[in-house]
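Researcher: I'd like a structural prediction for the single chain below. Treat it as a standalone chain; there are no partners to consider.
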Amino acid sequence: MSISYNPTTLIMRHSSCFYCPTPSTHDEPTLNRLYGLRCCDAHRADARRDSNAYLHRHKSVKLQDALSHPVIGPFLTRLQTDTTIVRSDNSLDGGWTLNTDHHYADPMLRIVEGLWRIPMKNVSIVKEKGVSLVSFLDKRLQYDPVLISEIQAILEAGLYASDVAACTSEPIDVPETPCVKIVYVGNDPVRVAD
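Model: Treating it as a single chain, here is the predicted structure.
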């Protein structure tokens, strides 16, 4: 049985594999390049599995993985051009595109308030938002409702469900680096070097 780990911060960590004591050769990013799992070549598949299983449990899908999916990808590619969306007041608003920027966190499709959201941006008004997938069912937008329902079903089933099934143990937390301590600034825990 192999160990499964929860992704963690990669800041102030030794350059050794989380799965074995050998030097690391790769960081598997989960939420961004500074949060994931550190691994050697022999454990790279384990790190990918555990990262994806974490995303599945947190109802998130990396945009790059969604773009490479045979059903979801073409729909998202269409959103990379000028797109009209339905605003919260039910009005239509143009000038939106798929947000593929990587400022701090990697773009993700995720569930927010019970709905799958797609990262979108409007550069003319300098705004970013998660646009609900179901809003594309609005007849004024003229998207295929069967396609939107199929995408919804695929996301609900989980792009990473096979990674969750491949985990043979409950994921555990990566042990803290020995020289790092947790201190509280107000109510917020902060990791500091001893």
